[in-house]
């Protein structure tokens, strides 16, 4: 009987301990993946985040752990200078729901700082590192 109680205690502490070590980003992604099933749900979650005072964007993680180059330097600038919460998604494939989620954030940034401010910032940082670029037609950052 004592060994069963000990086993249950260890199991409970292990599960509870794992929850404590879960980062806010992991908790967000877990909820996002459970809740979001289509574009409307993604937009709704982004709007809820904004109403709670968080402007959140979904971004891919830096490859080769180099966050000093574009576009990661741009994302870091958004976090540091504009208070954007970055959630790193583990996919290099664009998912329509993620784009819908980010569209809400982009529109909020445009409303706060002006329609072309973020695109100009991105372009300036890109030119500083690589030289002029062509803007992608389907970007969720620049129209």
Please explain how this structure is put together:
It is a single chain. The chain has 143 residues and is mostly helical. It has one domain (24-130). It has helices at 2-21, 24-35, 39-51, 72-82, 96-113, 117-130, and strands at residues 55-59, 84-88. The protein has a two-stranded parallel ribbon with strand order 1-2. Helix 3 runs parallel beside helix 5. The longest helix is centred in the first third of the chain and has 20 residues, at 2-21. The radius of gyration is 19 Å and the shape is globular. The mean pLDDT is 81.
The structural class is mainly alpha
Strand count, sense and barrel status of the largest sheet are: 2 strands, parallel
- H/E element sequence: HHHEHEHH
Instruction: List the domain count as a whole number.
Output: 1
Please give the count of helices.
Answer: 6
- Which segments are poorly predicted (pLDDT under 50) over 5 or more consecutive residues? none
Oligomer: single chain
**Terminus-to-terminus distance:** 66 Å
C-alpha Rg, in Å?
A: 19 Å
Strand content: 5-15%
How do the strands line up in the largest sheet? 1-2
Task: Quickly describe the structure.
This protein has 143 residues and is mostly helical. It has one domain (24-130).
What is the fold's blueprint, element by element?
Elements: H1 2-21, H2 24-35, H3 39-51, E1 55-59, H4 72-82, E2 84-88, H5 96-113, H6 117-130
Parallel strand pairs: 1-2
